[in-house]
Structures are given as structure tokens and as C-alpha cells.
């Protein structure tokens, strides 16, 4: 089942070592056509790139099935983030949420990036504490229909 289609803020693979594409989820559980519309709408309003302040010093464990339509039973851990505007934390996420409410989707209320997905509970040894940092991300339309996170991919031609 996966997470259908969605919109991510994707960062360079060198920022964090993950087996899947490193990202901050904006939305998931969307039909492809709606995801394409939301993608173009967000690009037209906010542009392609955003900066995210990532709290690497305070890793979080995420409960399985954290989205309303989620039945994937994936355990995970990662970091919380905050969108920056001119170097300052902003309420831009609530503006993005307001736009996303026009579409049928699951919105990610907590800005977060996942470092590891697992079908069993995440071990303490898997969690890494690091230095907080700022990462540049691009808004991307994604195919997250696979049950396997390493199969998720960016849809480049839209």
C-alpha cells in the first residue's frame, strides 16, 4: 500500500545517511492528480527551495501509523525541523497546511525527517544524536506507493 503520492521537501543525500530518499514530508496519501496540482501550487507560491533548521541534538522516535490513513506499521526515528525564512523560524508551515486542506491528503503536522524505517521497534543503538544544522530542500512530487521505503521516488516529469 505505501503512502500513495505526496509532496516532500527533499535534501541532498550527503546531509544524512539514509537508505531511502531523505525528506521532510509535507503530504502523503494523495491521488496522483491532486498531488500534481498541490505541487504546482506550492511551487508557484513558495518557489522550489526552502531551508529547514534540523534539531539533530534531540532525535525522536515516531509511532507506527502516524498519519490518519496509515496502516503500514512502520516504526521509525528521526529529527524535528523548522522552516526558515531569511534565517529565522517562521510560521510558513501553517500557511502550507492551509493550502493543503483544499486537497484530500494526510498533512504532516510535525515537520520531521525520518532516518530509519523498520517493521520492528527501533533500537536505541540505531538512534544518532548530532549537531543541529540547516539543510536546503527542494519541493518534490513523489511516488510513495511501494511498501518498501527504498523504492519511493521523485516524479521528475510533471
Give a quick set of tags describing it:
2 helices; 158 residues; Cyclic Phosphodiesterase, Chain: A; 10 strands; alpha+beta; single chain
Give the H and E element order: EEHEEEEHEEEE
Into which percentage range does the β-strand content fall?
35-45%
Structural class by secondary-structure content: alpha+beta
Largest sheet: 10 strands, antiparallel
What's the β-strand tally? 10
Question: How would you describe the overall organization of this protein?
Answer:
The chain has 158 residues and is of the alpha+beta class. The protein contains 2 helices and 10 strands. It starts with a strand and ends with a strand. It has helices spanning 32-46, 92-100, and strands spanning 4-11, 23-30, 49-54, 60-62, 75-85, 88-89, 106-107, 112-118, 133-144, 153-154.
Amino acid at each position: 500500500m505505501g503512502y500513495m503520492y505526496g509532496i516532500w521537501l527533499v535534501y541532498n543525500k550527503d546531509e544524512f545517511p539514509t537508505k531511502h530518499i531523505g525528506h521532510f514530508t509535507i503530504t502523503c496519501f494523495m491521488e496522483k492528480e491532486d498531488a500534481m496540482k498541490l505541487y504546482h501550487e506550492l511551487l508557484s507560491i513558495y518557489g522550489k527551495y526552502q531551508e529547514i533548521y534540523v534539531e539533530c541534538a534531540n532525535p525522536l522516535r515516531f509511532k507506527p501509523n502516524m498519519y490518519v490513513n496509515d496502516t503500514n506499521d512502520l516504526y521509525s526515528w528521526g529529527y524535528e525541523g523548522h522552516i526558515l525564512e531569511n534565517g529565522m523560524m517562521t510560521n510558513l508551515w501553517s500557511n502550507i497546511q492551509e493550502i493543503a486542506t483544499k486537497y484530500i491528503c494526510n498533512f504532516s503536522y510535525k515537520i520531521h525527517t525520518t532516518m530509519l524505517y523498520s517493521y520492528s521497534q527501533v533500537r536505541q543503538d540505531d538512534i544518532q544524536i548530532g549537531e543541529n544544522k540547516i539543510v536546503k530542500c527542494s519541493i518534490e512530487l513523489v511516488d510513495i506507493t511501494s511498501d518498501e521505503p527504498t523504492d519511493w521516488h521523485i516524479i521528475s516529469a510533471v
